[in-house]
Specification:
By secondary structure, the protein is an alpha/beta fold. It is built from 4 helices and 8 strands; from the N terminus they run βαβαββαβββαβ. It has helices spanning 24-30, 40-43, 69-86, 120-127; strands spanning 2-6, 34-38, 53-56, 59-62, 90-93, 104-106, 114-116, 132-134. It has a 4-stranded parallel β-sheet with strand order 2-1-5-8. Strands 3-4 form a two-stranded antiparallel ribbon. A two-stranded antiparallel ribbon has the order 6-7. Helix 1 (24-30) links the parallel strand 1 (2-6) and strand 2. Helix 3 (69-86) packs across helix 4. It is globular. The two termini are 16 Å apart.
Length: 138
């Protein structure tokens, strides 16, 4: 299988705080498959590290109140292009992210409260018919 994966899950230091979300479970699951790592936020031109962002009233806003929706959506579109170009069978994405969250995202108040919802990239993948899995499902 060709599997697109949030790059942070593979140990790439592209997370908002400059760190990663390396997952041994994901790494084991990927053995024997073709892996395509992406970070939509970096693809959208955001630096690492960067201020944390959440979805507020349908737009991505960082903790300083700056609208970064354009960068998130451009990065999601570029990552979608990569998914299509590679003919992926599955995407495994980082939980709770405003880009990659599959089942839950933060509520937009920067308090750590989770709500049902999807990040902009996860939503875009599903809208385009791709199978998406939360890394915590593995």
């Amino acid at each position: 299988m060709k599997i697109l994966v949030s790059a942070c899950l593979l140990g790439e230091n592209c997370k908002y705080n400059g760190k990663n979300n390396y997952s041994e479970c994901v790494a084991k699951y990927l053995e024997g498959h073709e892996v395509i790592p992406v970070c939509p936020e970096v693809l959208g031109g955001l630096p690492t590290p960067r201020d944390p962002s959440e979805i507020v009233s349908g737009e991505v806003i960082n903790c300083k109140g700056i609208n970064v929706d354009r960068q998130f959506r451009e990065g999601a579109e570029e990552a979608l292009r990569i998914a299509k170009e590679n003919g992926i069978d599955l995407a495994i994405l980082q939980s709770r992210s405003p880009s990659c969250g599959v089942k839950q995202i933060y509520d937009g108040n920067f308090t750590g409260k989770l709500i049902p919802g999807q990040g902009v990239f996860a939503q875009l993948l599903e809208k385009n018919g791709f199978r998406v899995m939360d890394c915590e499902e593995i």
